[in-house]
Design goal:
single chain, 272 residues, alpha+beta, 7-stranded antiparallel beta sheet, two-stranded antiparallel ribbon, 6 helices
């Protein structure tokens, strides 16, 4: 009978142990003692002052394409208006008639036109009196001096060795001053007036420009010279080749001057 009570006693102790185990609080994971700390979610780490921020690569700057200079265009200028032309009244008065033409080309008011034959004779006498070694006529120096004295200047006589340079110089002077140029023709035996021109390029924009045509007022029209050919009609547009048959170099040995041999121009000068 001793075995039965013993078994009952053991069963009682087992029941008591089970009951105590069920009543004990559960152990939390974070309360377990370990050698490593428990990792928990946290905010991103703050930026450090010693770490430079990421650098953005700048966008490449577009390479500028150079703009080519403008191409020269056809250019034309003519001071002539109807009524500006005056013929020379004798075969000697070409300088005086050219002075009258130049006055008319400069004076655009239209109120006073120089065309009187008596006045032309007086102008010729003025130019002849201011000329030297002119074979009893008027030379380019007297011509320029009269222009200056009557208020159309300043004008100066220049000699240019190269033909194309002479045309460019004359064209540029017309653009710069708005006044015509005197041309000494036939090696000094005759004169006419350049009132305008045509060129490839505006002389005020291009240092080099070919003159393609020249406007001429020749007071000897409708006559001419046996050696040099007929004088062109008023306001004629001549090619450089056509003008070159009469506009030729002048040698200084035939008159008293320090100018070298070349193409003679009675050239307007810009006013100071």
């Amino acid at each position: 009978m001793i075995g039965a009570p013993l078994r009952l006693l053991v069963a009682w102790f087992v029941a008591i142990a089970t009951l105590l185990s069920a009543c004990a609080p559960a152990t939390r994971l974070d309360e377990v003692t370990t050698d490593q700390p428990i990792q928990t979610p946290s905010a991103p780490p703050a930026a450090r002052d010693d770490v430079p921020p990421p650098q953005r690569t700048p966008s490449p700057t577009p390479t500028s394409v150079p703009v080519p200079p403008p191409a020269p265009q056809a250019f034309a200028l003519n001071l002539y208006q109807e009524g500006d032309f005056v013929p020379q009244y004798t075969f000697e008065w070409c300088v005086a008639a050219s002075i009258q033409i130049m006055h008319n080309l400069i004076d655009k008011t239209g109120t006073v036109t120089w065309a009187d034959s008596v006045q032309q004779g007086e102008l010729w006498e003025m130019a002849r009196a201011r000329s030297t070694d002119s074979f009893n006529g008027a030379n380019p120096l007297g011509w320029a001096q009269v222009l200056n004295e009557v208020g159309m200047g300043p004008y100066a006589v220049v000699s240019i060795a190269d033909y194309e340079d002479a045309l460019q110089t004359a064209a540029r002077a017309i653009v710069d001053t708005g006044r015509p140029v005197g041309l000494v023709l036939w090696r000094g035996r005759h004169v006419s007036v350049m009132s305008g021109f045509e060129s490839l390029g505006d002389p005020s924009q291009f240092p080099e420009f070919p003159v393609t045509a020249i406007r001429v007022q020749d007071p000897l029209y409708p006559y001419g010279g046996e050696q040099w050919g007929p004088s062109p009609a008023p306001n004629s547009l001549l090619t450089p080749e056509q003008l070159a048959t009469q506009f030729v170099v002048r040698e200084p040995r035939r008159w008293s001057t320090d100018l070298p041999t070349g193409y003679l121009l009675v050239l307007p000068v810009a006013k100071a």
